[in-house]
Known about the structure:
Blueprint: H1 6-12, H2 24-29, H3 44-47, H4 49-61, E1 67-71, E2 76-78, E3 81-83, E4 88-92, H5 93-97, H6 138-155, E5 156-160, E6 168-170, E7 174-176, E8 182-186
Antiparallel strand pairs: 1-4, 2-3, 5-8, 6-7
Helix pairs in contact: 4-6
The site of protoporphyrin IX containing FE (HEM) has 13 residues, from helix 6.
Amino acid sequence: MYDGTRHERRRRIVPTDPxxxxxxxxxxxxxxxxxxxDVSASGAYxxxxxxRNVVSETLRLYPPTLAVTRQAxxxxxxxxxxxxxxxQFLLPQWPVHRDERYWDxxxxxxxxxxxxxxxxxxxxxxxxxxxxRNCVGxxxxxxELTLILATILDRVELDVSMDGPLTFTPSLQLRPETDIEATxxxx
Length: 187
Ligand code: HEM
């Protein structure tokens, strides 16, 4: 999939993300400020609904794993195509997570979309893959991301100073091509 030149690889996954800098504050506001108490305390995760939604939305637009692979153990017909045993499949999160058949305004960073009960097909979102061989660390990773994000934002304000779209270098994981600079201010 990413066997082109470095430039071509980059171009293919430059997001057309319409989140603008002016939205930064709005985005910051949707994060909780636990303030009193320790966000790692038992029960905190359940209360951090908005932070969980931010994590879900981040994993949708910027899935750290770009694709999962599978190999057919027997002949299979998929979407009308007859495929032999041994056929290899690449299941890429990036385009599926941005497919307008499943997502309203797919390139908009909108954590509130996770407030509604999910009406899309189950496999339209699979940052941790799916099925019996999906990520065994999924729950741990989600919990960790949520608690760390809430802890950081409880203590500091982040102002990301970037012009232009984010660009990424595909490798084993999705990585920003350049450093992302931010001003960090104690709250
Ligand atoms: C944001 C964080 C993470 C993401 C997006 C992620 C994503 C994935 C994906 C897409 C797979 C491939 C599954 C497949 O082929 O169907 C995988 C496998 C795996 N992940 Fe994660 N992962 C994350 C964090 C973690 C953590 C924290 C751990 C361990 C504590 C972990 C342990 C594993 C293991 C052991 C497998 C192999 C499962 C198997 O082959 O049966 N992951 N992960």
